[in-house]
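User: Hello! I'm new to structural biology and keep hearing that structure can be predicted from sequence alone. Could you demonstrate with NmrA-like domain-containing protein? Please show me the input and the output so I can see what each looks like.

Assistant: Of course. The first part below is the input, the amino acid sequence of NmrA-like domain-containing protein. The second part is the output, the predicted structure written as tokens.
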Amino acid sequence: MTILVLGGTGKTGGVLTKLLHEAGLPFLVASRSGKAPEPYKAVTFDWFDPSTFENPFKADSNIDKVYLVLPVAQYDTLPVVAPFIDLAISKGVKRIVLLTALQGEPGSPAFGVVQSYLEAKDIEYAVLRPSWFSQNFASLFIKSIRENDEVFSATGEGKIPWISSEDVAQAAFDTLTTPESIRKDLLVVGPELLTYDEAASILSNVLGRTIKHKKHTPEEQMKAFSQVLTPEFSQVMVDMEVAVAQGLEEKYFKEPASRLYVGKHRLEDYFKANRDIWTK
Ligand SMILES: NC(=O)c1ccc[n+]([C@@H]2O[C@H](COP(=O)([O-])OP(=O)(O)OC[C@H]3O[C@@H](n4cnc5c(N)ncnc54)[C@H](OP(=O)(O)O)[C@@H]3O)[C@@H](O)[C@H]2O)c1
């Protein structure tokens, strides 16, 4: 039996493949290039080329589980993803672990629509709904930290349960490999709640220079996101940041333990282990 890892070259999928390899479990990576780090097996797969959807099943007829990372920064996900989910089930897939986002309630744009589609299917699933990744400080904010000593958001004084992509990968590993029969919606959060001001202050201490949190209005943040994302997806991002400001992620963090998957890695540990990334 084989686990198909979509997004297997990304932040969560890359760690997941390492965990599967260490556990000696068979898996196949799907990537646009058809390549994965040695010695992993990989096939070409592109969400925007449906003719590639059959490739994994042609390469391995034993695929029974899928880790599904949605097309990145895509607003209208369901028309892209639904045909693949249907194909996978028709090929014998029995469990799908879907990565969405903490605020992606079932039916919500971009993320929750795919969750609702999956929940209507007669298969096992886990929906992993992580909070904001600690690793965003090394992707989204790498330039602004290096060049301007700042991060920016419309989250105001709202608290975030920052999660490490390593913990998300561990949640994926656990839900893909559990012998339990599962149909789960999991809120994936880190071990502590921190505002952007607090995160910037921790990073300042680690780097030995002051990193500021520039508090954007929703309009300013919309302008910033629109430079790299479509207007529709930028609006989703801004709405999620405004919801943070209103205390939504703090509320999720306080949900009953049965709804939560709590990661181990603290934001400060991530900053300390990676401090060279932000060196000027
Ligand atoms: N960052 C956050 O704070 C945060 C929070 C919650 C949820 N999320 C969600 O996490 C997901 C991203 O996961 P990640 O961080 O593990 O991935 P990632 O590091 O952003 O990497 C993206 C992965 O998707 C693959 N990919 C990109 N375009 C593709 C395409 N057209 N067809 C097939 N594969 C494609 C890439 O592989 P190749 O380039 O090799 O093809 C890569 O493996 C997104 O859905 C995001 O919304 C992020």
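User: So the tokens describe the shape?

Assistant: Right, they're a compact way of writing down the 3D structure. Reading them back into a model, for example: The two ends are 47 Å apart (CA to CA).
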